[in-house]
Amino acid sequence: MKRSLGTLAGEPGSVTGMKKTISGLIIMAVLLIGGISSGEDLSPEATVHKYFNAIKNHQFEEAYDYVSQGMRGDRTREKWAEDWRKIFEGGEVVILEFSVSAANIVGDKATVRVSNRSSCLLDRKTNPKGVVEHEIDYLIKEKGVWKIDRTDVLAEE
Hints:
The protein has 6 helices and 5 strands, in the order H-H-H-H-H-H-E-E-E-E-E. By secondary structure, it is α+β, with helices and mostly antiparallel strands. It folds into 2 domains: 5-36; 42-156, Nuclear Transport Factor 2, Chain: A (Roll), CATH 3.10.450.50. Strands 1, 2, 3, 4 and 5 form a 5-stranded antiparallel sheet that branches. The longest helix has 24 residues, at 15-38. It is globular. The relative contact order is 0.13.
C-alpha cells in the first residue's frame, strides 16, 4: 500500500496535511539541533574535551561556549575569541594532543584532570616535541550546563 505525505499527516493528499507534516519536521529539526548545540547534556569531561578540541583547532568562538561567565568576564564572544586568537597566533601556540580524565562531581561542581602537549615559538628550538602540561579544570553548572570556571596548572614536563 502506497502512502502519500498527506496520508501520513492524517489528511490524504491534501496541501494542509503536507504543510502540517513539513512544519512538524522543521520543528523537530530545530529542537534536535538546539538540543545538540546547547551543550545541556554534556558531562564535565565532554565539556572539557570539546573546549580543548575547539582551542586546538583555533575555533575560539566555539570554545567561548564552554567557559563560565566568570572566565569570560564582560567580554563578548568576539572580543574573547580575538584575545585568545592573538595569544595563539602571536606565540605560534599549537596544542599537539590532549587527554581528559574522568570527572569528580560533587553537586553543581566538578573537577577534571587534563594533560596536554603543546608547543610555542619560544619552545620549538629547545623542545621540538613540545611541553607536557598537567592541569585541573574546575567546572560549575550555569543554567544547568557544565562550564569551565577555573584552571590550575599543576606541572610542566
